[in-house]
Amino acid sequence: MNTLAAALPAQNPSGVNYVALTILIVLFLVVTVMGFMATRWRRPSSMESLDEWGLGGRSFGTWVTWFLLGGDLYTAYTFVAVPAAMFALGSVSGFFAVPYTIVLYPIIFVFMSRLWSVSHRHGYVTPADFVKGRYGSRELSLAVAVTGFLATMPYIALQLVGIQAVLEVTGVGGGDNWVAKDAPLFIAFALLAAYTYSSGLRAPAMIAFVKDGLIYLVIIVAIIYLPSKVGGWEAIFGAAEKKMSTPNPATGKPVGAFVPGSQQMWAYATLGLGSALALFMYPHSITASLSSSNRNTIRRNAAILPAYSFVLGLLALLGWVAIAAGTKPIGLDGKPNAQLVIPQLFEDMFPSWFAGIAFAAIAIGALVPAAIMSIAAANTFTRNIYKEWIRPDASAQQEAKVSKLVSLVVKGFALVFVLLLDKQNAINFQLLGGIWILQTFPAIVFGLYTRWFHRWALLAGWAVGMVYGTYSAYNVVNPTTGSHFGGSLANIPGIAQMGYIAMTAFAINLIVAAILSGVFNAMKVSNGHDETIKGDYFADAGDPRVEKLALGPHESTPSP
Predict the structure, then answer these.
(1) Distance from C-alpha of 8 to C-alpha of 309, rounded to nearest angstrom
(2) Residue 68: how many CB atoms within 10 A of its CB?
(3) Backbone angles phi, psi at 280, to 5 degrees
(4) Cβ–Cβ contacts within 10 Å for residue 522, how many?
(5) Residue 179, class by beta-carbon neighbours within 10 Å (0-12 exposed, 13-18 middle, 19+ buried)?
(6) From residue 217, how far is each of 32, 211, 340, 546 by CA, in Å?
(7) Given Cys at both, which of 95, 253, 364, 487 links 211, Cβ 3.0 to 4.6 Å?
(8) Do residues 150 and 385 touch, judged by C-beta distance below 8 A?
């Protein structure tokens, strides 16, 4: 570390903020120790099962689940990207995240407890497990699994973007020397990989307490302190309105929207609703939910998680505070980078010691979701691809071993993706992932309530939605760079208004699935075997019918 620190000033003429960097490193080491200690937290007789390693023994209560879900859903990229969107483009691109998280929680209050119950009853670990059990369709289950896996990969990579933003602002990451440029990121994710491998979901669950506490502290202090330094909220809103109305030289249109106009209402509404429907289709969101100890834990969390929405609203407004403060988010390469705006704002406006705490909040905010996402992706691959299609006779121990190894591969891929490709690619693919993951909603959520939809119709609807969504996203060209996949908004057919591509693809998906279901049901085409019964959707902790894991002869059976 001393050698690295000594090399940095030569690489970065503006100097390293050593006070902030030291605090960042100390807090990072604290959570690393906590990550390794988590393997002893509520230690089971064996970690060699997906129930224990991948779901924390399905034992987390209300507050642990609340911090875990908060740490999972409100990521480092949220901390960086939402205010960056407000800073660069205004309310349509940034502030829609606030109402979408408010709409989200009543939706999961309705269906997530049912998914928890049926998963608890049958030992399902992933949403694709449920789809396989509900419809008896390996093909539909594979479609859901592959979609979830692919949609999660760029999401993990984006957590690195958050850490990179912090490192750039502290002065780490410049120059051509890879030691000075990339080694800190390698070290951070090597430690993450190590304690996730050993502790599983217990590691991010424990670290989430620190992460969320730091974020609440930083945002509340910032929203109270910063406005007084830039002339108050009237000056902040005035500066934002002026910037958003300024023409963009590349397009001749206003830079962004201070308040969405009539032509932007569809975009704002569909972005909000589509994002709300999609978020809990991601494997990592469901993984955190299934780790709960009972079904009422899910409902209680749906009631108290909006507290994070309040903080998210404050966080979004910091993007406009940065406009009033005259923040210049310039990367170490000398190019403007809106993703740096919040770290740079903290660097400019706060003492170095508090900037270090803020930077640690962002960096640690990357570790929790990255760990959960990699675990969820690994569980999905292991249970629904490896065991279902490659090694059907895999034991619980073999499943856990494969999942641990895949979690390492997933993190490695995310690291290589960010280091070798332009960061904008990670952002574009994450937007594409949001379009993809919404296409699994009918198979998962509708399946919790009805078997009317036919398995082959759902598969056809999924395929059509995926093709349409991917093609439409490809045709969105970034006006600045000319690259494809430049956004997630396009004209809605028949309405001639800009809207969220995922919602249009979802509507087409539903139409295809409904029409074909009517046809297949009328023709009495087999709809597969349903291994669930009505009572499964209301099962709770301690249900005597809960299936036990098939363990080896020398292992004890974990409690349900």
Answers:
(1) 38
(2) 29
(3) -90, 15
(4) 8
(5) middle
(6) 20, 10, 20, 41
(7) 364
(8) no
Report how far Cα 3 is from the mean position of its chain's Cα atoms.
35
* Structure confidence by residue, pLDDT tens digits, 216-267: 899 999 999 999 999 999 999 999 999 998 887 777 788 888 888 777 889 8
pLDDT at 175: 54
Question: Alpha-carbon distance 413 to 157, whole Å?
Answer: 8
Contacts of 105 (CB under 8 A, 6+ apart): 302, 303, 305, 306
Is the CATH number 3.20.20.70 carried by domain 2-36+47-538?
no
> Can you tell me the distance from the alpha carbon of 367 to that of 211, in angstroms, rounded to the nearest whole number?
9
Judged against a pLDDT cut of 50, whether residue 2 lies above it is answered with no
At position 429, the amino acid (one-letter code) is F
> Is residue 247 helix, strand or coil?
strand
Backbone angles phi, psi at 491, to 5 degrees: -60, 135
Q: Model confidence at 344, in pLDDT bands (50, 70, 90)?
A: very high
The SS3 of residue 233 is helix
Sequence-separated (6 or more) residues with CB below 8 Å from residue 321: 222, 226, 227, 230, 236, 345
Owner of token pair 């030569």: 10
Q: What is the pLDDT of residues 36-50, one digit of tens each?
A: 998 887 777 677 888
